[in-house]
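During the second year of the project, the team shifted from modelling isolated chains to modelling whole assemblies. The rationale, set out in the original proposal, was that interfaces cannot be judged from single-chain predictions alone. As a representative example for this report, we include one of the complexes processed in the last quarter. Its constituent sequences, exactly as entered into the pipeline, are reproduced here:
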Amino acid sequence: EVQLVESGGDLVQPGRSLRLSCTASGFNFYGYAMHWVRQAPGRGLEWVSGISWSSGSIGYADSVKGRFTISRDNAKNSLFLEMNSLRGDDTALYYCAKDTSGSQYYYNYIDVWGRGTKVTVSS
Amino acid sequence: QSALTQPPSASGSPEQSVTISCTGTSSDVGGYNYVSWYQQYPGKAPKLIIYEVTKRPSGVPDRFSGSKSGNTASLTVSGLQAEDEADYYCNSYAGSNRYVFGTGTKVTVL
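Output from the structure prediction step:
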């Protein structure tokens, strides 16, 4: 069974850092691009960041560029999101998501989602 | 990098059809055939229902169909059923290793 399990969400003060993790199983993790997508309470989906299978191509939403860093460890079937200088508007459920693209140069579509990990930024 | 524009809500009676629009630009929806649609129930993760503008994953009823014209993509749900009441989001590749989601549409079955 294809599965993505996120962890690392927490209550954190503004300005602090947090690292999210996602462990994949049931598919060849190294073969596909991966993403983080977030959803603030009562709001819509927002793409946060994506990374190609080789980590050679990375993209960020303007709202997190310079503050968040995506990375992956293909040997450990794991995806990460390092979040620095957190703000109140980063409060959201963060989903790990699998793309169908095996390319360095573009994405196709997301076909698998995790259940999400909750990040709350508040003093 | 603005969100794709969707109507906040749409509704229809059982067995009727409802169409949801998703308007972007030539840099996203109009520039690529990588438009997908997701269905989301409250408290649940999104589920893929349409990919590459018109294709349906296995297991998704053929009541769901997608199309695109210029910078606007559309999702049509024909023969509405009670279980179709959910939030729907479009998504498009936007170049330079970026995605953009739509603002979301809440579908109500009257």
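Chain A has a mean pLDDT of 96. Chain A touches chain B at residues 35, 37, 44-47, 50, 52, 57-62, 95, 100, 105-111, 113-116 (CB under 8 Å).
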